[in-house]
Amino acid sequence: MKMTEPAASADTSLQMRPHVLVVTGMSGAGRSTAAKVLEDLGYNVIDNLPPEMLSQVAAHHEVPERRRRLAVVIDSRAGDPMETLTEAINELDRQGVQTRVLFLDADDAHIVNRYEESRRPHPMRLGSVTDSIAAEREMLEGLRESADVMIDTTDLNVHQLRARLTDLFAEVTGQRPMRVSVTSFGYKHGVPRDADLIFDVRFLPNPHWVRELRPLIGTDQPVKEYVLGFADAGEFLTKIEGLLSFLIPRYEEEGKSYLTIGIGCTGGHHRSVVLAEELGQWLEQQQIDANVRHRDTER
Fold first, then answer.
1. 93 touches 99 (CB < 8 A)
2. How many CB atoms sit inside 10 A of residue 160's CB?
3. What is the pLDDT of residues 65-121, one digit of tens each?
4. 3-class secondary-structure state, position 10
5. In terms of Cα–Cα distance, which of 116, 190, 102 is closest to 151?
6. Domain layout of the chain by residue ranges
7. Is the entire prediction scored with pTM above 0.70?
8. CATH 3.40.50.300 fits 7-169, yes or no
9. Sheet arrangement for strand 179-186
10. Residue 35: closest CA among 74, 61, 92
11. Residues in contact with 17: Cβ distance below 8 Å, sequence separation at least 6, in sequence order
């Protein structure tokens, strides 16, 4: 769905428009937790809704009249949801209902572990859990690619997932509809799979090799001063700020409401943390709703 309102009035327009959030993704990736969090945030949540019923349910809940926020969980339990869900979203768009798709994912090994711990059967029921996961992943690939926001829950506990969802889906209070999440990470622990943009800052000198800085992290002042003391750090930030100044308004025009930026260094303790904090502060200065999190500082 495209948003064509002028940027100055976009926030007011979005708040006035009825809102439906479609929650989907891999079984075992946290959909039940997400549904509970969204209820706490004021959404009316309906679980296991057949995609073809989406527009009828939205109308039944009088979303356009009351501007009540509705979240519906649609997943592989309803069969292959891609085609019918796309048609339902297009119908809501024609009715003036703002629809967003949240996709929850996790790597296969973690999903297998979660099913082994819970001893519950996978909804695909194809014999082994591994086979069921593979079939479901293939079925939902189109939804994953078209989702407005994707959250990888592999390394998130329940409390971290709640915080992430709250950052994304609590009422927007800024002057712009775009919400930006900046995540620092360490390449040695893997690239965050839910990032839209990834920047590698390993070109900067590593504080890890400075004995007094090694036990600290990028939120500590000595590390911050060390990293920002290099001219390349400042030039990097200037170039990224220029890029985001160009991209964000265009993403908004295309209807994108959520942007996740990953900034990586080797271990995720020093350089990426400093630059993620600096970028988050700049975004806030631009009156863009921004959240900064550091994935690997405790590893």
1. yes
2. 13
3. 444 578 988 877 766 666 678 888 888 888 878 888 999 999 999 989 888 787 778
4. helix
5. 102
6. 7-169, 179-294
7. no
8. yes
9. 197-200, 258-265, 179-186, 289-294
10. 74
11. 67, 96, 97, 98
* Contact assessment for residue 64 and residue 18, using Cβ atoms and an 8 Å cutoff: yes
Contact 169, 21 (CB under 8 A): yes
Instruction: Give the rounded distance of the alpha carbon of 41 from its chain centre.
Output: 16
Q: Which residues pair with 289 in a beta bridge?
A: 179
Q: What is the DSSP string of 155-190?
A: T--HHHHHHHHHHHHSPP-SSSS-EEEEEEEEGGG-
Question: What tokens appear for 57 in the block?
Answer: 């349910």
Residues 1, 10, 163, 271: is their CA dihedral positive or negative?
Answer: positive
Return the bridge partners of 70, or none.
20, 44
Tokens 């709640």, located at residue: 162
Contact (CB, 8 A) for 275 and 285: no
If DSSP codes are grouped into helix, strand and coil, which group holds residue 42? coil
pLDDT at 206: 97
Sheet holding 69-73, edge to edge: 44-46, 69-73, 19-25, 98-105, 149-152
Q: Which residue has the higher pLDDT, 115 or 227?
A: 227
Helix axes 158-169, 31-40, angle to 10 degrees: 50
Q: Which residues, 6+ apart, have CB-to-CB distance to 180 below 8 Å?
A: 248, 258, 259, 260, 261, 283, 288, 289, 290, 291
Beta-carbon-side half-sphere exposure of residue 294 (alpha carbons within 13 Å) = 21
